[in-house]
């Protein structure tokens, strides 16, 4: 199982083959993990990935465990 590498930031193009874009706007992306990538925080497979460059975001109840990873440019929220 390949783990997302975020040591030098997150480049969605490196993982496009296994992530399905659900929606995107100027500063956020919501992706579905279709290839079983592992979470960079806990090393377990994740279901969805939310990537944002915004300083603030509001989320509903994810109803499942989640991990948060911060890079220099963005924040990644991964639901399991």
Automatic annotation (TrEMBL):
This is Flagella cluster protein. It comes from the Archaea. It comes from Halovenus rubra. Keywords: Cell projection, Cilium, Flagellum. Pfam families: DUF7385 (PF24110).
